[in-house]
Amino acid sequence: MSDAGHTATQEPVLMPRRRRDRTPVGGPIRLNLTPMIDMVFQLLIYFVVTAGFVADEGALTTSMPRETGESKAVAALPQEPLRIMLKKIPGGVTMRLENAGQTVTEVRALTGLLEAVQWNPGKGRVGAFRPEHPVRVEVGRDVGWEAVVNALGAAAAADYTRVEIAQP
């Protein structure tokens, strides 16, 4: 029973695939962390035991000459703070640098005075006061905040780092 002029095409028959069970025979895989934790603790103990803890350095040992030379008298630096006194005058404010005994009325001149009395070899200043020496701004009656801020700014511009306002 075949048809002579007719060719039969057969379609492929798809068989249903059997799904594999992905779970192993012994149950789900579990990660055992105990050996890893043991190894971490062993490494920790190793590094703690082998690390060399050094005490902070104390004094450096030096060999000083036994001979005594002439000592040059070194002038003691002043301990009293630099005092800038602000006083109200008709038409403005005077700024007096008490330690230098000079009075000025302009902020730039006050900055110049503060730089002149400062000791800072890196900037070519050979005065008696270091940049960390305290500077105290003493404010007189009826002096406005603008003058106080200008005096503080002059001290900061002259590179002084410890500037304070005195209690009136």
In words, what does this structure look like?
This protein has helices at 34-50, 107-116, 145-157, and strands at residues 82-89, 92-97, 102-104, 119-120, 125-126, 134-139, 162-165. A hairpin with a 2-residue loop joins strand 1 (82-89) and strand 2. The longest helix is centred in the N-terminal third of the chain and has 17 residues, at 34-50. It is built from three helices and seven strands, in the order H-E-E-E-H-E-E-E-H-E. The model has no long low-confidence stretch (mean pLDDT 80). Helices cover 24% and strands 18% of the residues. The chain has a domain at 82-165: 2-Layer Sandwich (Nucleotidyltransferase, domain 5), CATH 3.30.420. The strands form two sheets. It has a five-stranded mixed sheet with strand order 3-2-1-6-7, covered by helices on one side. The protein has a two-stranded antiparallel sheet with strand order 4-5. By secondary structure, it is α/β, with parallel strands linked by helices.
Largest sheet: 5 strands, mixed
CATH architecture heading of the domain at 82-165:
2-Layer Sandwich
End-to-end gap: 128 Å
CATH topology grouping of the domain at 82-165: Nucleotidyltransferase, domain 5
Q: Level of helix content?
A: 10-25%
CATH class of the domain at 82-165: Alpha Beta
Number of strands: 7
Strand % is 15-25%
- Average residue pLDDT: 80
Output the number of helix runs: 3
